[in-house]
């Protein structure tokens, strides 16, 4: 038996080298930032990447203790960059130690392999974000008092969990852009993934900058639940094509989530914020409660929901057509053979085939003629 030839390592800094070793390279950058905490000269810069910035200490009237709240600012870009690196590392770990092992057992095609990896990564993210978002909402008053979405606007101060949640959300969806290159996503799938990645970045960043983090958090939690159900159902479908019940539940919750999003958005931008005490535009105070911004935000949300519903309807129609075609093909396969038509009998006689009603053989006809 001959020895197996070792695969030659690609040239340094080539495309294949970067794709194969991108997780190690990103880990080195993250380790350099962490090592900066050990030295006094670089600690002030390194801590800007790792910890959440712009903390404000406030004392409540009812309690004597002080509460640490947070605002947003330009230094958040450094924090988002660091956790973008962490997201790339976690993405590689999930891919290597979980998804790749499952792919070897399932023996999927290239198309299903790409979709399986996408659903696996997104399902893990949606599950973590949904649990995290629910834990934050349980501490708020939304369940008993929905008016907290607009009361006291502008909501310039956030608790640590809310700000860190938004930092991680923005970092994750920004990390998805270079992952299109690292994961060698097919050219046919790149436009579809770019659409929803850019929509996530646009909406989440907009809610964060416009001090609408309460509304954004309330809208993200049910949306993430619906997306989690879809990608989990797709994972089960790839393992066994007969498991399709999850898609029915997903379709129902998808429509409910769209209606809930539109209802809360119209309620906030159409009725709540116009009646709030603080009206006007002020960058220093973080107040964006003017008609132009309110209508722009509402229009962006409505257009996004309409686009999602359009994609959903096309997806359901495509599945319905495929199902109807498969049912029609099954009926044709099991239907009894139809009787031959007169045209077919005429064609058969013209080709030298004796008609079925002519029961006499050629020998008998010769005998009668003689």
Automatic annotation (TrEMBL):
<feature type="transmembrane region" description="Helical">
    <location>
        <begin position="194"/>
        <end position="211"/>
    </location>
</feature>
<feature type="transmembrane region" description="Helical">
    <location>
        <begin position="249"/>
        <end position="271"/>
    </location>
</feature>
<keyword id="KW-0472">Membrane</keyword>
<keyword id="KW-0813">Transport</keyword>
<keyword id="KW-0811">Translocation</keyword>
<feature type="transmembrane region" description="Helical">
    <location>
        <begin position="217"/>
        <end position="237"/>
    </location>
</feature>
<feature type="region of interest" description="Disordered">
    <location>
        <begin position="324"/>
        <end position="370"/>
    </location>
</feature>
<keyword id="KW-0653">Protein transport</keyword>
<dbReference type="InterPro" id="IPR016447">
    <property type="entry name" value="Translocation_assoc_membrane"/>
</dbReference>
<protein>
    <recommendedName>
        <fullName>Translocating chain-associated membrane protein</fullName>
    </recommendedName>
</protein>
<feature type="transmembrane region" description="Helical">
    <location>
        <begin position="29"/>
        <end position="52"/>
    </location>
</feature>
<feature type="transmembrane region" description="Helical">
    <location>
        <begin position="120"/>
        <end position="139"/>
    </location>
</feature>
<dbReference type="InterPro" id="IPR006634">
    <property type="entry name" value="TLC-dom"/>
</dbReference>
<dbReference type="GO" id="GO:0045048">
    <property type="term" value="P:protein insertion into ER membrane"/>
</dbReference>
<feature type="compositionally biased region" description="Basic residues">
    <location>
        <begin position="329"/>
        <end position="344"/>
    </location>
</feature>
<keyword id="KW-1133">Transmembrane helix</keyword>
<feature type="domain" description="TLC">
    <location>
        <begin position="114"/>
        <end position="323"/>
    </location>
</feature>
<dbReference type="Pfam" id="PF03798">
    <property type="entry name" value="TRAM_LAG1_CLN8"/>
</dbReference>
<feature type="transmembrane region" description="Helical">
    <location>
        <begin position="159"/>
        <end position="182"/>
    </location>
</feature>
<keyword id="KW-0812">Transmembrane</keyword>
<dbReference type="GO" id="GO:0005789">
    <property type="term" value="C:endoplasmic reticulum membrane"/>
</dbReference>
<feature type="transmembrane region" description="Helical">
    <location>
        <begin position="291"/>
        <end position="310"/>
    </location>
</feature>
<feature type="transmembrane region" description="Helical">
    <location>
        <begin position="80"/>
        <end position="99"/>
    </location>
</feature>
<comment type="similarity">
    <text>Belongs to the TRAM family.</text>
</comment>
<dbReference type="GO" id="GO:0006616">
    <property type="term" value="P:SRP-dependent cotranslational protein targeting to membrane, translocation"/>
</dbReference>
